[in-house]
Specification:
single chain; 527 residues; mainly alpha
């Protein structure tokens, strides 16, 4: 059993209380501990990704109890990719937090940041639905505190809205788990993948209800229309580093949909056949359109970026809703791209705030460090809008290619291309107003001299942009990797057998009636 698999969860789980208890009043020590922990996470994530790169599935049984009764953590290619993406994002967000001083604007920023990482990592690595719910709650509780970091009435109001919508999602999640457990007697994902195959389609109404409820829950997390209303205000009003970290949180919803609806409720499952095409594709197309129209209509730079997140999630969901290996591979490539691009834009918006009265899309006097900030915005906007030569353009090409020769090809191509045009106009309008027109606005004589942002802030944003460039340059190996992931997702036998056939303490209790004859291994090695 490899203990490295659980380290991405355990490391931030130990660092968070340590920061509170041992370094509560020492911001310098907190910064050192947080950065060291995140660097450690990157090292572990790289090791896990390398281990999983050949298709190896690594299992960790907590307490050495075998599935389906024991709690398991599973590292495969998909989960390790998301863990690595989160770790890299966290590093640049933390560097920006330190450089800009956001981490010193309120108490417990670093502890909450670590708890947030713990929840996100756990959601990616868990092997059962109940612990997916648990880690959802961990990351949401931490995000509540981060949302209102540094205080303010507007931020508090947005935080309350954020809490209410996510509490609704948590309630639906519990209903879905209750329905699934009542029908199957298990919540382990691998075990569910086996058991739902045995249901008679004519007697599977409970399974269909649970599948629909789970889709609604994950749609709330992913901010899919019409369950997206919580996102614009929440992300726009959150502190910039928090909004940048939140760029990965919508991807948790996308990850859950990919995991659950390729393994437990695959498209060919007769009990839930048609569920994906009837509901997810129309919602994804509308989300893409609404998000990009919001980009065009936004009157503030931070809300424009928030709407672009909705649009990018619509793009991801369009690809996922195809539920083909090509569609999932394209979605994974675009997930990496959109996470980095959205995070960079939120941080650039905060750089733009320096020396300005507000982030309204109106001509105001030039800002401190405006030339470098404008250049970074130009690159990040190109990436998010999907213009060549950056990874957004390549990602959209992959999605359009995946939709070719499908029944929804006309709708997908029309909405994707139309939304891309709208987003280009929206970002061009915002950039020209904020940076170009500012050159013609005189600076008032009594205006205070603005202090340029710290160099570390620019380093953090530059790092994210460099990752976008690398994602473009190495698009060939990246798409090959995502293609391999998609192939394994549609053939989950290795995942299921690793989870269910690995012996543990459960086998010791088989003769006492605690084991399942289908999954527990008897003394003679038979199943």
């Amino acid at each position: 059993m490899s203990h490295w698999v659980i380290l991405p969860i355990v490391l931030p789980a130990f660092l968070a209380p340590f920061i509170v208890l041992a370094a509560r009043y020492h911001i310098g020590i907190q910064r050192v501990i947080s950065l060291a922990g995140i660097v450690g996470l990157i090292v572990v994530a790289l090791g896990l990704a390398w281990q999983a790169s050949d298709g190896t599935v690594t299992l960790y049984q907590l307490g050495d109890w075998a599935a389906p009764f024991g709690i398991v953590v599973v590292a495969d290619q998909l989960s390790t990719l998301m863990v690595l993406l989160t770790s890299v994002l966290a590093l640049f967000v933390m560097l920006y937090s330190i450089g800009s001083g956001w981490d010193d604007c309120g108490r417990h920023f670093h502890a909450l940041f670590q708890f947030q990482l713990m929840g996100i990592m756990g959601a990616f690595l868990t092997g059962d639905l109940f612990n997916l719910f648990v880690f959802f709650e961990v990351l949401l509780i931490a995000s509540y505190g981060l949302m209102i970091h540094a205080g303010g009435t507007v931020r508090l109001r947005a935080g309350v809205q954020y809490v209410l919508f996510n509490l609704l999602g948590s309630t639906l999640f519990l209903f879905a788990l209750g329905s699934i457990y009542a029908e199957t007697g298990t919540l382990n994902m691998a075990d569910l993948a086996v058991r739902v195959q045995l249901f008679d389609p004519l007697e599977s109404s409970g399974i269909r209800v649970a599948a629909v409820l789970l889709l609604m829950v994950f749609a709330i997390k992913a901010a899919i229309v019409p369950l997206h209303f919580w996102l614009p205000s929440s992300y726009a009003e959150a502190p910039a580093p928090v909004a940048a970290l939140f760029a990965i949180m919508t991807k948790v919803g996308a990850y859950a949909i990919i995991r659950v609806y390729t393994m437990i409720f695959p498209p060919e499952l007769e009990a839930t056949v048609g569920l994906h095409g009837w509901w997810l594709m129309p919602a994804a197309l509308v989300s893409l359109a609404v998000g990009m129209i919001g980009v065009l209509a936004a009157k503030k730079l931070d809300r424009l970026i928030a709407f672009s997140v909705i649009g990018s999630m619509g793009m991801v969901m369009v690809s996922i809703a195809l539920f083909t290996p090509e569609g999932i591979a394209a979605a994974l490539y675009y997930i990496v791209h959109s996470t980095l691009a959205a995070a960079a834009l939120f941080l650039i918006a905060d750089l733009t705030r320096a020396g300005r009265e507000n982030l309204n899309l109106t001509a105001q006097p030039p800002i401190a460090g405006g030339i470098l900030t404008a250049a970074m915005f130009f690159v990040a906007a190109i990436a998010m809008a999907g213009l060549p030569p950056l990874s957004g353009f390549l990602g959209k090409l992959l999605i359009l290619d995946a939709a070719f020769d499908t029944a929804t090809m006309v709708w997908v191509w029309a909405v994707v291309l139309g939304a891309s045009l709208i987003s280009v106009v929206g970002f061009a309008r915002a950039g020209s107003t904020v940076f170009w027109k500012a050159r013609g606005v005189p600076v008032p004589e009594d205006a205070e001299i603005a202090v340029p942002p710290a160099a570390l802030s620019y380093v953090a944003v530059g790092g994210l942009i460099a990752m976008l460039v690398a994602h473009t340059v190495f698009a060939g190996p990246a798409t090959s990797y995502t293609t391999a992931i998609a192939k394994d997702l549609f053939a989950p036998d290795a995942y299921i057998s690793t989870v269910l056939d690995t012996p543990g303490k459960l086998s010791d209790y088989k003769d006492d009636g605690y084991g399942d004859d289908d999954h527990a291994t008897d003394e003679e090695g038979e199943h």
